[in-house]
Amino acid sequence: MLTMFNRTGGAGSRPWRGAIATATLVALSLGAAGCSGNSKSNAASTSSSSSSSKSSNASSNSSKSSGSGLSPVTAHNVSLPNGTPGQGKPSVTIGDKNFPEEFLLGDLYQIALKAKGYTVTVKPNIGGSEIIDTSFKSGQIDLYPEYLGEIVSSVAKKSPQKSDVATYNAAKKFEQSHRNATLLKQTPFQDVDVLFVKTAFAKANNLKSVGDLTNVGAKGQGVTYVAQPPSRTRFAGLKGLQKAYGLTKVNFVGAPPGQQYKAINKGQGNVGDAFSTDPAFASGVNAGKYLALNDTKHIMGFQHVAPVVKQSVVKAEGPQFTKTLNWVSSLLTLKAVQTMDIAVQTHHKDASTVAQKFLEANGLNS
């Protein structure tokens, strides 16, 4: 079996995420994200197999505030600080994980900080959630962007929460109690795992949600679930299907990242797992080839992104540091991230150049 890096730690392990596919994703203009160059790692680009869903189930499941439609822990309406408030402040080290979307996120945050005068050292491609958490805990890095459900499930080893606010609060509590750190505001977008099936299979079995897999057979008899090997023992995977949905008869087939599509297409399985912002999955949804199943029990959790920052760094760098990072987060809608992901992963544009152009288009003065 191929050894491939992914989101949650080391080779071949990640939790699953499921969110939204826009019907016009493939036709989205690259706009400000479009640029020339190569991705940071062609090998790593294969590791971000993700999924989108035509329904907006993951977004609609987020706790909403009364005004903006976003939850109170989400960054929105943040203005970029004037001038270069970072001049004279201590240097900071930012890390990112080991797949294309994380490279992009790391670049977005570090470019904005540098433009505001902060001295930033970048340690890219560190590893998955458990690995980068170890680097953070040991003081090798001062901050990094993380999917909050990952902190809860992969680092804190807690069960998935029932809302994005609960996930944010659980992750923040862990970071404060165990890492002397905090979370800044989370992004509007999330990249959640989703279970998907071929459209013909969905129609034949009247499938709309994960629970409908009982239509295939009692307790999931006849269902073959294709996912990365660690999902066999994760709640955000086979264990969740068994415990939350009662699908105790589901068969599991392990596959490297990206190979689940081939397995489903060849009939080696009938239910696959993907990431919500993955261009490959979105194109399949848009073409009518795949259908994402609604995760009504939320076994895949909530996966908004937020900068994880040492509390000492937040204090030393001052409020404009926090405001700069929150400004970046506020820009990261699902459409924006999907568009940039297409530029980096499909068109092989350089992630840092994509990030630079996106930020400049949104008001950053380099």
From TrEMBL:
Q: Where is this region: Disordered?
A: 36-93
Compositional bias of kind Low complexity: 36-69
Q: Which domain of life is it from?
A: Bacteria
Kindly give the SUPFAM superfamilies that the UniProt entry links to this protein: Periplasmic binding protein-like II
Q: Where is the ABC-type glycine betaine transport system substrate-binding domain?
A: 91-360
Which Pfam family would be a valid example here? OpuAC
Tell me, what is one Gene Ontology molecular-function annotation carried by this entry? transmembrane transporter activity
- Give Gene Ontology CC terms: ATP-binding cassette (ABC) transporter complex
Compositionally biased spans, kind Polar residues: 74-84
Its recorded name reads Osmoprotectant transport system substrate-binding protein
